[in-house]
Amino acid sequence: MATMEIEGRVFEVDGDGFLADPGIWNDEVADLFARYDGIAPMNEKHWQIVRIIRRNYEEKGMAPMIRTICRETGLKLREIYELFPLGPARGACRVAGLPKPDGCV
Amino acid sequence: MTNDQLQHAIDLLRPSGDSRLLTHLNSCVHCGLCAESCLFYLATGDERLTPARKADLVSSIYRRYHSVTGKLLPWLVGARELNSESIDEMVELLFGSCTLCGRCTMHCSIGVDVTFLVQTGRKMLSEMGLVPATLQATVQAAVETGNNMAIPVEDYRDTLQWMEEELTDEVGDPEARIPLDKPGRKILYTLNPREPKFFPLSISAMAKIFYAAGESWTLSTRMYDVTNYAYFSGNDGEAALIADRLWSEMKNLQAEQLVLAECGHGTRAFRWESPNYLERSFPFPVMSSVEYIAGCIREGRIRLDPEKIRERVTLHDPCNLVRNGGVVREQRYILQSFVPDFVEMTPSGIDNHCCGGGGGMLSMSEYNEWRMKAGSVKAEQIRRTGASIVVTPCHNCVDQLIQINAFYKLGVRILTMAEIVADALIIEHETRIAKQSRAPLK
User: Fold this and answer.
1) What is the ipTM of this complex?
2) Contacts of B154 in chain A (CB under 8 A)
3) What is B3-130's CATH topology?
4) Could you say which of 3.40.50, 1.10.150, 3.20.20, 1.10.110 is the CATH number of the domain covering B313-424?
5) Which pLDDT tens digit goes with each residue over B314-356?
6) How far is B223 from chain A (nearest CA, A)?
7) How many CB atoms lie within 10 A of CB A84?
C-alpha cells in the first residue's frame, strides 16, 4: 500500500491515490485531497458534488451516475468537468474518499 | 497456489501443433532493436523493461520445462524455473510495464511477435490466479453484472433518457430518439460503460450523428458493453463468455450490422479475437464507429461545417484500433474533411506511441506511477504539435490523456471522434426526412 503526504498529513492510498480506508474520510481529508489536485479552496459547488457522491457510496456502496450528481446538484454536466478537471472518477470520487471505480477510468 | 495451477501454467508453453508459439519462443536474436520502440524503456531508460527481456522471461521458462538442454543444463541456455522469483518478475514486467501496444512487434528485425509472448505469459499468470486485483475486479464486474462498471439497468435507462432530452434540444426535434431494445433495426450500437456512468456526452454526440444520417439503429439494455477486459487479463474462458453475449444480443435483436463504440481493445477483442475465442466466423458485418462515420461522410449522408472548429487539432491513434486493428485512414479522412488546421503527431498512424494506459494499465492502480511516467512520451508528442484539441477514438485513451493533460500541464482538450464530429454537424431537417423516406426506419 502506498502513502501520500499532503501538508504534513500522511494517508494510506492505493496506487492511484484513492484512500485505502474510506472509513477515515472527513471534510478535512476532502479538503486536503482537493488541494493536492490544485482545487483550493473547494467552493460550495465542489462540496455539493462531493457530498452527493459520498452519500450514494454510503447508501449503495458505489459511486453515483453522473446523472444523479447533475440532478441533485442542479449543475450542468460541463460544469462538473470544469470543477473537477480529472473527471468525476479520478477527480470527484477521489476527493469524496471512495475506492477507485472499476473500468476505463 | 496449487501444484496443479503451476503445472497448467507450464503446460501453456508445451510444444503442440501450434507452430506459432514455438516459432516466437525460439526466434529472438537479442539484437536489442526493440528497446527504443517501447514506451516504458523510452520513459525510464531501464533495460529490464525492454521488449526482448519480457519475451525472454517467457521463453526461458519454456526452455526449462520443454527443451532437452534446458531440462539437463538449464544454466547453459538461460532456462529458468517457474518459481516465486520468476513469477514476481512476470507480474511486474508482463502486467505492470507492458500495454500490449505491439510497437515492438512491428519494429522487430526478424518479426518476433513479442506481444503474443507477453499475452501468453499473462495467460500463465491467469492460470495461477495472479491477475492484478484491480484488473480482475473489472473483469469480474463485467462477468457478473453484464457491464464492467456494474451499472444497474434502471440507472442506465435513466441516463439514456436524459441524453435523449439533450439530443432533442440539440437538434430541435422533439421526435429525435435514442432507441432502446428495438428489434429489427439495421445497426446495433454499443457503449463503453464509462459513457453512461461518467461521460455521457459522447452518447448524445453519436446519437446526433445517427439522427443526421437518418439511420435505423438501437442500443440494448441487456448487452451494450463494448469492452472485454478478459482480453487483457489473459482469461480466454471469460473473454469468450463476454464476447458471446454480444453475439447473442445481435441475434436477439435481429440487427443486421454491429457498430462498436470508440474503444481500441474492445474493437480488437470483439472484431479480431472473438471468432477465435468462440471458434466461429461472423454471420454479420462488424465495424468501428470511426469507419461508420467516415462512411456517412463519403456517402454524403452527413455534412460537416468547415468553419466550426477553428483550433488546431491533432489525433492520437489507439494501438488496438490502428496498429493492431487496421483502422488507419478513416479517422484522418474524417478530420481532414472539416478541420482546417489538422496536424499529425510524430510518429503517427501504425507507428504511433501508446498513450501509456493500454493493456489494462488504466484499471491497474498497482502501476499508476509507471503509467504516468510512460505517458511522458505521449505528453511530449502532443506538446510538439502545438494543438489545443486532441481527438482520440478510444475512451480508455481519453481517460489516460485527461490525466496526462493535468499531470504534464498540457492545457489541451480531449475529445472523442463522435464529439468533434457532432460539434460540426449541419442538421438539415428536410434532407433528413427525405433520407428517411428513401430508407424508412423499421
Assistant:
1) 0.95
2) none
3) Fumarate Reductase Iron-sulfur Protein; Chain B, domain 2 (1.10.1060)
4) 3.40.50
5) 999 999 999 999 999 999 999 999 999 999 999 999 999 999 9
6) 16
7) 23
